[in-house]
Design a protein that fits this description.
Blueprint (H helix, E strand, L loop, with lengths): L5 E3 L23 E9 L5 E5 L5 E3 L13 E11 L2 E9 L6 E2 L22 E8 L2 E10 L5 E9 L2 E7 L8 E10 L8 E6 L2 E6 L1
Parallel strand pairs: 7-10, 11-13
Antiparallel strand pairs: 1-10, 2-3, 2-5, 3-4, 5-6, 8-9, 9-12, 10-11, 13-14
Amino acid sequence: MRKLFSSIVGAFCLCLVVGCSEDDGSDFPSLITDLVVAETNASKKVAKVTLDNGHSFDVEAQGISTEVADTTFRCVASYTLTGGKMEVRNIAQVFSVLPVPGDSLLTAKDGTRQFDTLPRDPMNVVSMWKSGGYINMLLGLMTTGKGTHGFAFSEDSVGHYSLVHLRPTEDAESYTEKVYMSMPIPKGIEKLTFSVYTYDGVFTRMF
């Protein structure tokens, strides 16, 4: 993969399972799937999960393993909340990096020119919203599951951002996978627009 681009491997579908009751009348807590921030400890275990409303939950005892110690990362989690306690059923990191000036993505760190224009391979926008200091999106990626797609968030001008997408040559558009992404909102930015190049033209949302 060309330099200055981050890749995403997993694709995650949005799901919400409503609580149900068995014949004895007992209720099961609703399973919620949402974007959160996870924090790991020195043992590479997830110690805390913070929702976008600012509420945090200690989940260290649940033994959720990761690859990196003492860090925080944006992820999609499936969990239940009962009596003020969180039980995490599944957690997976999502693409979430700070935006960089678009011109910087045209040139590699060694000065080699990568592109004449930024790659804008299309994706479908399922939903886009602002929460927790992020611009969040659920996108539809057309794929056959081959190769690694490259992504970046471009700052096109002050307050104007967009998704950069580089499709690998070996991948074709066969079926759709739903993919979460979250762009951290840069400090000092109160109003912004975000654009995604789609099959029907440029989708732009103001926040």
